[in-house]
Each structure stands twice: as structure tokens, then as C-alpha cells.
């Protein structure tokens, strides 16, 4: 629910700097349109006068805004929230809502507007009631079939709600602060409770209920008198009022539950008002105060955490509270069932839209000026969001069998549906189109490739070329394609005519090549690097096509040119097809096309090669002419000395030389061409020798692309990971994004896993992620086979049994499927084949799937090596599962210390044998007839949400402004760059809305740039917004959310708020545990940062533990003798010194010095600095040892002594900062003549008894955490 104080959708949230208007003239040439007329866009304030009283509000506006944007700002202003049906007047003249502010005559000179209430229509009255219900909190919970339970929730406010376990008391001494910080348990399993929002006290009710009256709708005679709706309100005082919604407003009528009299009520309770909100204030004395309390409760959360999500799908968490939690409470609400009428009207016509016409009309909007482009892209963004939502809802109904097919006599996979003006079909080979390509498997892949192709075409935004709105939805094992209905798609062609005008018509037997499609297809082919090529029909007639023969052009009855079937925009990966699959494990289909990102990457590589060759050729040409040039210069010099040359001639010659040099520096790229033929290796038969030669050349180019993928792109990816040039992915989603960005198909996971294993421990994280992803994807395919035709009420039983076989065999090696017998009898024709699945058979099926799909053989006993919790999360995200939170027990309770750990289960088989004696370890669940403990029960699976792929394009305007801002900053034009970055932020928020994944990415990027520009307050604010929006749109535990929290932590620490930074850093690290498990390489840096933050709050001992854990992970990844480990040993030595463990500090610094010296050499600055610190730490340790010895001797003699002011047992150590360890260490003038080896032996001998505890602490090895390079410290080598 949107709070009343939430910002308007068209305005930017505060970023620590003043929000700019859309400054068109400040944008660079690539953003503005040349020759477009610009208006003065200086923002100014407009005073808005409200009706009925003397109140007025001021709103900042830009001349480039439209009046309806001002109207929206008024509706959301706290003083004007009761108004929804009104128009604006300027100088007593009504203003059209779609005029631009600059077009309102006189508004800039007299910025005064008046709100004038309008008469209601039935639709306006319905919208007003919905708005007021939301505004006052009268709307109950909703059961959403698509978005799921707690969709779009944020736990940002909960993260800082209880910081006492980490944050020390402010303004206390160092010792007190250190004591209050609880030691972090690195070995503890991750707590899943952190993914559940905290339960809060419910907000106070403003009214008991507000709904439509049973007397609604008004009869015809009363409709003639202006009656629109009849409402019923129960106030907190216990009174019930019947209200008439009239064209003039709302009034209390004389009706009751038994008597119908909608006339105005007389007497003291006969109130009326134009706004329902005002009427509620009049009839309920407690309404105003209770509404103020309601606002106070809702305003405790960050506005972004409650702002309504409009232009994107909210993220559905995979873990949800138990069904009896207050967070999932189902409250009574009479109006819940009435919302369909309130939203869509009695005939449901308000929600029926001609999606295709809206899409194509929006694309045809002008884009000549900046404001035109903003309006167009904003409309398209909202339109795609609405369509995606409608298509997803329709697909779920189709999957559940609740929509009647248009062809009920056809086989189920061949049936088609129309719902809400969206055309649906199954992603299966129902009519045999893909028989030769792999049948259902090929059809399923083709639909996914098609939606990707549509998205690419939408992003290119080519004039004269149109695409249908396209969405692919995966739900309970079914893949459903939703498309907007193209005019003419169902029209039967006339005899002799083809329905398709370009491309293959009937399979590939008939080919059409309408010249009207040549021009737009040529533009598309150029952008996609597709070569114009020949194809042949069944009669061997040649056609020269601009695109793949599979890509079709259709001339709609609306006269527009549509492009369809975009699943073959790139060539086949022939290298994959040529590889021999293991016997009996043939790859399931032939739709193995290369990714567009790979083709683009190869094009750029070819362009670089072309430029380098041209530079080399020119360099050789210059060298050949050098002697001649030298001779000419000598002659010219002699002539000049002799006075034979005039001044003007010399200048002209110099200008000519400069122009020639400039021409030489500019390389003409017109001669460069790179394009691939997408139809090679697809049964095309050239007829002549020339055609055969051309085809052979095209085939060789495709083979070169396959080689480029295998031996350059993939090797470069692994090298970048090994050299820490890029971050390691955290989970399956981030792994998929990384590979796709590089142009690597997911079928190469097996190859990448094998190559990673060859690199040893450095790429062990990546190998493990690849294997986990292969297992989870294989399980998804297996589960889909059982779920595809299973009735919805039986799906929970199927899911629980399959997951018990996959993850719960350690607790129960013989799981039994739990099925309600009454449902089993009811669906007696359902295929219950999942009942026969056993852990052994499922493991064998998964091994077979990974061999078939990835050509990778899982190791024997792989199920013992998996991390159970992380694999459960991957499976849940891929299938859209929402699971009740509980302590998941994956192994028998013999290992009581970590029942649900991080998925490591050594010795699992031994534990499973004791299951009969350990039944008390069964997870809590609803009683069942199955007595043996099982990890999962059917009741654990409370919901399944659809997984969808859409074709929504990104905003090119916002991205251009972003790139222009970056470029300006790199060119040292900081002021212009900052203005453009703010401009890009404003464009992102206007086009996408405030809560959108693209906006989250913008906040993330901008926060980093502001941090680099030393604007820390703005960086913190943007990082906070990035974390909240990422939580709501990408997931509470997504990789992006983790990075956003880490950024926020770092920026807070740099701002000086280390205590709060510790809270967010700890939250991010705990999320990391859930996502990946322990020992992720990138956590080395994060743990170093955390340790440095602890030092800043003087928690030296805990800081030392984090450095030790960081070093432990670094050893696993890089090895003990690496430079990375040396760097961490350097920092750990400093931390040990601060923790007053001087002996361990010297040992660590000595080891660091030795590694630096061996690896980098004695002359390296890191080696020199380590040597300097080693000398200082050694001197300090010797001094402390001497003082300890002297004190001991004094004590033995019974004499009195006082601690040295220079160095004591702990005082001087606590004086030092994280940059300078021990003031006493630096100030000490005592120098020992012995060398370092002798000094260390001396220290060790003297500290042997008294320093035992310190040594033991220094050797602590704590099992869980991960990281990258050090955050601070002189050695700059990043780990």
C-alpha cells in the first residue's frame, strides 16, 4: 500500500542534491536531437489553491512536465489526499491534463492554479472508493495468484531494528565497547529467520469496514437521478452508515440492512461531502485521531519499502512465515470480493485492452525532442508492465485448466487459448513443427529464444518494424507463451496467397520474400550482424533473405510489418553438435544456437583486429616513406636558410602536413564487415558451385565463432576469475548472468566445471557453483515431467517427496510420498508416478540429465558433497516455490550441533542408519499418517509463483544520459558530469517508477560514483535506496542485495558511522552464508573491511578474529605462500599487536616479510615495508618481554614497582589507531643489538609460560566466512 507521504511516481527521491529538471540542452549530442526546439526548462514553484478553504500548497514543477504530473503530485500531497476527481484551472480557464506546463499561457508569470472539483462518473466513484480504502487502511489482505505471499517485501527496517548484539554503547571507553560486541560464530549455520520480516503490532483501524452496500447497484430510475454507488461503513464507534455515491459527491442516506431508502438522511447525522474521506471525518468522531495514529505507524517504515510497485513484478520470497503467523493472517473483508467490480466495472470492460494496438501506437509516438522521448519511453514501460502482469495471470489460469481452449478437440499440447485479449499456447511441439529438431524439448527452447529475440528487436527500436507483446511463463512444469494478438494472424489466406510474407511459410518447403520487408529486415540484420544469404525452397528455387529463413514477416491487416519467430537470429553452435555425446546420452534437441552476446563480442574482436592491421599497415607505409620525407625536410630547410621560401608557403605546407597527419590518424571503418549466416548447417542445399563455395565460407565463419567461444571467451572468463579481475558469482542467478553477458550458453557448464577443476583451489568456488547449477537445473527438468499434468492439489505431495529424495535421504533414506487419500480418490486418473521415485532412482536420473544436457559426469557420492540449504534455495527459485520457514533437518540428529547446517553432510550414510532411534529429530509439521521423520511435508509448500521471461526493453534515453555523465567525469568535467548523472537518475525514476530493478541498478552505480567523487552523504542515501529496491524487486537474498548492503556498510564507515556499518556488513555476510555457504573467495575483502570497522570502534580482539578468518579463507583459495596471504598476514600482525599479542604479531609479520621477499623480491616496496614493521614489532616485543622479566624479578624480591609509562601490559596498545600500531612501538628508543632471529627466540623463551593463551588465540581457525583483498594497510596487493 502506498503511504500518503510517499513521493510521486514521476519525481525523483531526494539524493542529497537538488533534483534537476529534464535539462535537454545539458545533454550531450547523442542524447538530444539535433535541430529540436528547446524550451526554457528552469524549474519554478506553482501555488495550488484547494477548494472549500483557504489552504494552498506549493509544488516545484518543470516547464517540460505535463499537467497530469502536477495533478498526481496534488493527489499524493498530505493536505490534498482526499481529492481524486477534479481539474485544474488557471485564470479561470480549465487546463487540459495532457498539456505541457510550458504550453499553459501565463503560468510561468503567474504560477497560480486552482483545484476545481468535478462531477463523478461511476468509474470515478469506484476509483475514489478504492483509493480511500487504501489510504485509510481499510483494505484487507489480498490473495494474489501471481505475485505470491509477501511479494515485494523489504526487511531493511528490520536489519537496524535490533543492533545491540553488534553495536557497542556510544561514548564509552575502548574496553567497554569491546566487551559489548558479541563474538561472531563463523562455524554457526545461517539463520533463515533473517529472511522473514519481523512481526509488528498491527496498525490501528480507522474504520471497522468500508464496502459496497447490498443495495448496490442503483436501479435505473435512481441512476437517472445521478446515483452511482451505494456504500456501507461501520465506524469505530460501532455505528453503521449507508452512503450514496452521487455525481455530486457522497452523502449518508436513509437505507438500512432491511429497508432501501437512498435519499439523503436528515437531522444531525445527515452529512455530505464531495470526498468520501471528508464524509468519514464528519460521521466518525474518532476517525481523524485514529487516522493520525495509522499514519504514524505506517511512516515508521522507509517510504520506499511501502511504495506501490507499478512497473515491475515484485520479488516473491522463497521462504515465507508459517501460515499461523500474523504476517500471513487472513482477515475478513467484505469488499475483497467486490474489488473486481470496483476495478473493472459491471461488464468487466475497464480491464479489457487491445494490447497490440496499444503497443504499436505507443511505438509510433514522436521522438523528436527529449520530452517526446521521455513521454514515449515512460508510456512503453508502463504498458509492458501491465501486459506482463496480465499475461502472467492468464498463463496461470491456463495452466490450471480454468480457461476454455479455442480448439478443445486437439491434443492438449496443441490447444490454444485467448484470455484478456492475450493469445496463449503451450511451449511444446503440439503440431509437429519441431519434430526434426527435438520435439517438445526443441519447442521449449525455441520459445525462450523467441522472447529473447523479441526483446532485442524492441531494444533496437527500428522504424517500421513491429513485434507482438511476448511473455513466456513457467508454472508447475508447464511452459506457456502469451502473445498480443496480431491483426490478421488468424485470417485465412486467399487461394494462391501466403499468410507469411517473408521467410518460411510451410516448414521450409515454401519461402516468401516480399520486397516490402527487405528494408526494415536489412536494418535489423545489420544490427544483429546477420549476413544476407541465399535459401532454397523445396523446388530448389533461390531466395536472398536478409534474415534467417525461420524468422517470419507478417503484414498485418492494420498495415504494419510484424516480425515473428525470432528464435533463430544467430547460427547453430555446430561445434557442440559435432562433439560426440556419451553413448546413450544424446543431447535432447538441435536448437543449440549461439548467443547474440557472443556474436557481438566476436564482431568487436574482429573490429579491433581490423584496426590493428590498419595501424600496422600504415606504420609500415610511414617507415617506407621516412627516408623520402627526411630528404624533403632537409631540402626545405636548406631553401629556408637561403631565403628561397616565403612565410606563407611554409605555413601552408605545415597546415597541409597537419591535415595529412590527421587523415592518417583517422581509420576508415567502412571497409570492415562482419556478419554470420544463421541458416548454415540447417539443411540448406546450394545448387551451383559458386553457391556451394559461398556456403562453405559461411560455414567456416560460424565454426570460427564456435572456436572463439570455446577457446577465447571461456578461457578469458576463467582467467579473469583466477586473476580476480571480476567478482565470483554467488548463486545460480549471478552465474547465469555472468555467462550470458560473456556470450556463453548454459550447456557449457560441464566444460567450465572441468576446466575449473584443472586450476585447483583458485577456481574451486566457480566449479562448485557450476556443479550445483547443473544439479538444480537437472532436478527442475525431472520435477517438470511429474508436475506437468498433475492436478494442482497434488503438487505439494509431489514436491515434498521429490525434495525428500534429493535432500532428505540423510534423515530418512526411504521417504514415502504423503498423499491425501480423498484427493487420490478424487483424481483417480492422475498420473502419480512420482510415488515410485526413490533417492537412488532420483540420483541416477539427475546424473543422466547432467550427462545429457551438460556432458558432465557427476562424481560418485555427489549427494554427500552438496550443500543442502543452498541447493534447496536454487531449486525453490527455479520452480517458483514458496516454502514455510522451519529448521530443515537434512541428516539424522546424531549430529545435533548442526542439523540444518550449510549443506555439508560428511558421513551422511552412517547417520541415516540410526534413523529409527532418532525419530525425535523430525521437523515439526502438521500431523500425518506417515510416522517416519521426513525433511519436507506437503504442508511446507504453501504456494507456487510463475517464473516468467518478458520482452520489455530498457530505456535508451536514461542510459545515454548515464553514459554521458560518466564520460564527462572521466574528462574532468565534474560539474557537467554530476548534472548529467542526476539527470539520468531523474529519467530512470520517471520512466521506470521508483521501485524497479533498473532503478536499483542505477542507485547502485550512482552511489559508487558519488563515493568516488567524495560526496559521502549522497552515496549513503543512494546505497540505502539501492538495497531497499533490490530487496523488493530482485529478492531479499539476491546477489545484488548483498552487494548493495556491502556498499552501504562501506560508505557508512567512510562517513564515520562504523557502528551502523557493522550492522549492515554483518547482515550481508549472513545473507552470503545462505546464498553460497562458507568460504566464498570474495568474502576475504568483506571480512577485512569488517575487521577494520571493528578496529575503528576499538574492538581489537574481535577484529583480530575476523582477520584470522579472512586469512583462513585466503589460504584455501590462494595458498599460504601467495602474495594475497602475505598481505593478510601483514594486516593480521597489526591486529595482533593491537590485541596485545606481540609474539604472534612478530611471527605473522615475519612470515609476511618472507613471502613478500620470496615472491616479489627484496627491493619491492611491500617487502621493505614489511621489514620495517617487523623491526618495530620486534623491538616492541623485546621491550615488553624485558619489562615482564623485570616486574617478575621485583615481585620475587618483594619490592614495589610501578608500570612503565612508555609501555605497559595493555595501555600503550590501546592508544594506537588502525594505521599506526602502538605509539609505544614508534616512540621506543630502546634498541637491541641482536638480529631478528635471536630476538624472536628470546621473546618466545620469555613468553613461553605467560603468553600461552595469546598464542592459542592467535591459532584460532574459525570455519565460516570468505572475502577478497585487504581493506587497509600499506601493502596494496589485493587478494
Automatic annotation (TrEMBL):
**Annotated ranges, domain Clu:** 333-577
Listed under GO cellular component are: cytoplasm
**Lineage: superkingdom:** Eukaryota
Q: What does this protein do?
A: mRNA-binding protein involved in proper cytoplasmic distribution of mitochondria.
| Bias-annotated ranges (Basic and acidic residues) | 648-662, 1241-1251
- The name under which this protein is listed is Clustered mitochondria protein homolog
Give a yes or no for keyword RNA-binding in this entry. Answer: yes
* Gene designation per UniProt: CLU1
Biological source species: Lasiosphaeria hispida
Read off the Pfam families from this record. CLU, CLU_N, eIF3_p135, TPR_10, TPR_12
The UniProt entry, under InterPro entries, shows: CLU-central, CLU_dom, CLU_N, CLU_prot, GSKIP_dom_sf, TPR-like_helical_dom_sf
